[in-house]
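Troubleshooting: if your tokenizer reports a length mismatch, compare your output against this known-good record of 128 residues.
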Amino acid sequence: MVGRGVSIDRGKDSYDLIMSLLSLSEIQRRILISLAHIYPKAASGKQLITLIGYSGKAKSLYRGPLERLEMEELILVDRLTPRLHSIRVNHLHPLIGYLLELIQAHGNATMELYTQALEDGKSIDEEE
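Known-good structure output:
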């Protein structure tokens, strides 16, 4: 065991997760963290924009931050219609799977905040 009950393997997973999150832009981190906290639910582009408090249009979100996250297989985007997309974290990605484990083990209150904000159509910043 290393440190506070973290195994060496989990310590490496934690390090890799932190470094991966740091390599993302602020908006990409907000997207990923938000989607992870509402998992297994998905969000539409409009819901995601509202949830993270993004001031731009959905089109610019799809062409930038979401495109990179999808390309890196961190999120899954289901194109239901040309204008309606369902966006969720890719739970099969090893680091995302680990993030989901951490959230489910230690983030119940925060999960409730994100889920309530999604259901109410509010920004997570309004809920805090």
